[in-house]
Please model this.
Amino acid sequence: MKKLKCPADILYEKEWRAAYGNRCNAIFLSNLMHDGESMRKLFHNEGSTHSFPVEAKIFYDYYKDHDKEKMLDRVKKATTGSDGYHYFGQPFSVDEYEGKRVLWDWSCRHSSYVANQESPWADLSNYEKRATMKVTDEFSSRQSVYYYNKSAAEVLKDTAEKTTFLEKQIEEPTGNKNLDLLVQNLQNNRDEKLDIPTYAFALRLINNDLTHAFDGKTEPLAPEAYVPVIIMLDEMSAEVFNQIDYKQQRTFHKSDLGQEMLRFSYLTTQNMYDKDKYEGFSSEKMNAWLSDIKNTDLWQVAQRKITEAIVERLAYRVKVGSLLNNRMMELATIKPKPKEAMYADYWQEDKNRSMYMNLYVKPQTSR
Model:
């Protein structure tokens, strides 16, 4: 089996594993339910390859127990932060409308013909709808799946059971005892709120292993041990970004966590084989890029640099996505205004700047 010697090897390993993912199921479900692609976006934003977004699990349980109030309670909890704001990018929410609680599907609400109508996922009869269609994942694995007379409930069930693929793959130890212990800890607490310090420490350890192997300081790494962990950490990143508010957004690029997430992105999502001239991996070049981001004073400028680097990687025909990259680019959009008055002026200035990014350029003084 081919060992991991550079970031391109990781992409190769992720590509064939993506065929076991859930993206085609998500596309089928959105097409069948006519939900404005909310289910597809949910998997794209929270777990494009192997994970099962919590809202999808909630809807599957709702189909089984028919308890709408319980479903609404769980969606409310899953889509709202501790500050009371709806998570950015979440297609579903629970709100009051005409004196009762309803499940909103924001992708549908953006279409005038279904404005103010409750989400199709609130109607249990929709779960019994059936369809025959071929679905192709054009944006990631290029996988095609033919669905013959399948219902939404059946595909939800299939999606829930398919998540065992990734969990079974993380049985092979990496050989880094501390990393293996942290991975086990993260797995054992998947039903709890993600402990970010544990996640950040795991990122740092795997980043060190990858950097040393790519630099040739250690032996190449075994893909059967490392790639499933890389996929898991990439998809767990959604829980990190869900917890980031405006205050953390401003310092993300300078923080230890932000730097490790940027390093992880650099190490796991670059297809250097596809460039016009093969450059090979250089930790010096990586560290210089990270240092430039960290030393950028204005967070919006730093975020633009991050986005440009990620988009450049996409231009080299990367066939598998990265949830971490997708959510990191979202940080370019300013978060909701914090409730603390001391941040009001900062937030307003950043909001104004976001309308005209050249505002940060100071005018030249006359001599």
